[in-house]
Amino acid sequence: MERNEVSAIAFFSEDDADEWDTERHQPSSKPDKATSVAAAVETKEWPKGPHGTPNAFNRSSLFSAGGKHIPSSLPMARGRSWIEGALVASMPNYEILYTGPLLDQHDKRVFQHIASIMRERNIPAGGTLEIPGYALLLSMGKTDGKANYESLAASLKRLWEGTITFMKTASGSWTDVRMLITGGQDHRTKAFRIALHPAMSLLHEYDVAKIDLKRKAGLSCQLASFLHDFYSSHRLAVPFQVAELQRLSGRTCDSKTFRRELRRALVELENCIPPVLAPGSKIDRNNGVIAKKAELAFVVGPAQPTKVAIVPNRAPKKPAVKKRRAFVL
Q: Which of 61, 182, 255, 328 is most solvent-facing, going by the fewest CB within 10 Å?
């Protein structure tokens, strides 16, 4: 099969933007700094145990469920909203400040597969992964068509541009963590060269959830993808308000539209194989989402967040008390 490679790009770092001669597809006279940039950064081994995704990502809108994409005057934004040091919507036990282009669930899938492949190949965080575009697409369950290559390249560039300016979780605090410290395509081999920030190893050490990436690849919408990871990060399905799920998902639409999309996403999570939710998930009259897990989630860290948005329940009926009662004075 002929592989339609994306047009030549290179974005190893701001200082190396012109590292490659894109017209001749040959290395420039400058030394190749792609490897040296990664080598200069401290590397950290991945934690032992099953592969997972940090719950700070699963329980926040850092990777939104299809947020509102608006044109931006900033050239790096490429048609998406540009976020400048904004506080990301998250559950109360996480605090995330982010600067960069708006990230979505497609970007998260790319990140998750990169982290998984690096762990399978024993490449430490901070080390460089070299992988052909078609191999990365294949791992994501996608074909190697031109549109998918372009989407992959655009996602890698967004991840490279995005920086977590501050993050606080149960396992510690970090500042100035770039999602990718290097990322680009080698014009000689057509392989992508990618390196994750060393702090990603620490983020994957505690308070993570095992995510079924193969099952997630079969979901049809971004909201279903967000809920897939969100409910996978809880051992039990905690009841949430519709408005709270919309806030955490980063989905920007009116409440009526979100309720309609939420119902469809819940049904999809019930029907996927294996199912995430048991049949009977619904939105009650109090705008609470009632859902039951179909399987127990594998979570490293706190079983439940410190604070959750509990759906208000009606006061239980008091048992009937007999009116006749004898008193002896």
A: 328
Q: How far apart are the first and last CA of the chain?
A: 97
Alpha helices in 121-221 (DSSP H): 133-139, 146-161, 199-203, 213-217
Q: In this predicted structure, what is the pLDDT of residue 67?
A: 55
- The answer for residues whose C-beta is within 8 angstroms of residue 167's C-beta and 6 or more apart is 56, 94, 95, 96, 97, 173, 174, 175, 177, 203
Kindly state whether residues 187 and 229 are assigned to the same domain. Answer: no
Q: Which of 97, 115, 111 is nearest to 60 (CA)?
A: 97
Tokens 């079969």 belong to 218
Distance CA 98, CA 175 (A): 10
pTM, two decimal places: 0.77
Helix pair 242-249, 255-271: axis angle to 10 deg: 80
Per-residue pLDDT band for 320 (boundaries 50, 70, 90) equals: low
Q: Whole domain around residue 266: which residue ranges?
A: 213-300
Residue with tokens 């079924």: 212
Report which of 115, 159, 142, 155 is spatially closest to residue 4, judged by C-alpha positions.
142
Are both 161 and 99 inside the same structural domain? Answer: yes
Residues 217 and 294 in one domain: yes
Q: How many CB atoms lie under 10 A from the CB of residue 79?
A: 11
How far apart CA 169 and CA 204 sit, in angstroms, is 12
